[in-house]
Design a protein that fits this description.
mainly alpha, binds fe (ii) ion, 67% helix
């Protein structure tokens, strides 16, 4: 499988990686109208190229080791970014009466909480192993941009129209597949072994499947210009929140400026 964060090349557009996935990863359902796939592919490419995804901090982290203070800040902020996201995604279900959308939302959330240990438990285990235990995290005061990101995601998923929410989720899952790959590279560069990196490694392919779930959920709707406008509004509102988050973390950590 092509590395997601390999330099873009004219021969392999980023969506090829989402078209061809390993077994066990959610696939894109074939759409009859090629214009629909073309639109969702182009949206995926716009998301992948956004500065919130190709952020200088994340790109620098792949090849630059952090000192303990920088690492503690980076992952404490991450904890407050990721917290409760499966609950928010589940909140999208009430916005629709389309069972196909409901199915894709459930499949996504089932990956996170459907088996033991749940992914938030795996994440807590990772944090503890780098020295960030429950006690540290509960006393940590995250940045304003981190709180705004987490609450912004909650609002996008639970208080927006389903088309806008799905736009935000398409950006979230596509962004995540790239972000986890960069973070996994950074941890490997830091000298951490596969066992410690398990949570991140596991999500590299899984998040591609989650992006594909959103592709399947929205595909029947994007022939409408109004639905496309809402979908794009959600995607770029989400990416703006993420970009401001990484700018804040970058300032705190002092890397990639
Ligand atoms: Fe995901």
């Amino acid at each position: 499988m092509t590395e997601l964060n390999a330099p873009p090349s004219a021969t392999t557009p980023v969506w090829e990686h989402f078209d061809h996935v390993e077994s066990g990863i959610r696939r894109r359902i074939a759409v009859a109208d090629p214009a629909v796939k073309d639109y969702l592919d182009r949206m995926l490419a716009r998301i992948a190229a956004h500065r919130g995804v190709e952020h200088p901090l994340l790109n620098a982290y792949r090849t630059t080791a952090l000192d303990p203070r920088q690492e503690s800040h980076m992952y404490s902020e991450c904890y407050y970014f990721f917290r409760y996201l499966p609950f928010y995604i589940t909140g999208m279900a009430i916005k629709t009466r389309d069972e196909m959308i409901l199915r894709e939302i459930i499949l996504n959330v089932a990956d996170e909480v459907g088996s033991d240990p749940t992914h938030s438990t795996l994440f807590a285990g990772f944090l503890a192993r780098i020295g960030l235990d429950k006690d540290h995290l509960s006393h940590y005061q995250p940045l304003d941009v981190t709180e705004r990101l987490n609450d912004g995601i909650r609002r996008l998923y639970t208080e927006s129209s389903i088309h806008k929410a799905l736009g935000a989720l398409y950006a979230d899952e596509t962004m995540s597949s790239i972000m986890v790959s960069k973070i996994n590279d950074g941890l490997r560069n830091q000298g951490y072994d596969e066992d410690l990196r398990h949570f991140w490694q596991l999500h590299i392919d899984l998040e591609v499947g989650h992006s594909n779930s959103v592709f399947n959920a929205i595909a029947p709707y994007v022939e409408s210009a109004a639905a496309r406008a809402e979908f794009e509004e959600g995607a770029f509102e989400f990416l703006g929140l993420v970009e401001r988050y990484w700018d804040g973390v970058q300032q705190l950590v002092g890397l990639g400026q």
